[in-house]
Amino acid sequence: MTPHIAALSLLTLTPLAACGPVSVQQAEAQCFESARLAQHPRGSVGVGLGTGGPVTNFEIAVSSDYLMGRDPSAVYDACVYQKSGQPPRQPLYSRTDWKG
């Protein structure tokens, strides 16, 4: 295989590797935020004073799962399964870091 073909193969296959399944632990970590956003919107407001005068910042995150009234646990389960091909190791509502 010539160096050019090898390099082209790596460039072609590298993005596909990112599409493959991840570990259940990684999927759970990634999907936890999706479940939080399905529970209710999140946001922040910031007010301050800069050299140019008053500074304000407003951010809000609303998911389509929240708008459609989906159960955060169902969102979490489906997300973990989609990303890892396996169900979560424990239900969302029994996680100690879940405040629902």
TrEMBL record:
Keyword terms of this UniProt record: Signal
Source domain of life: Bacteria
Residues in the signal sequence: 1-17
Name of the molecule in the record: Lipoprotein
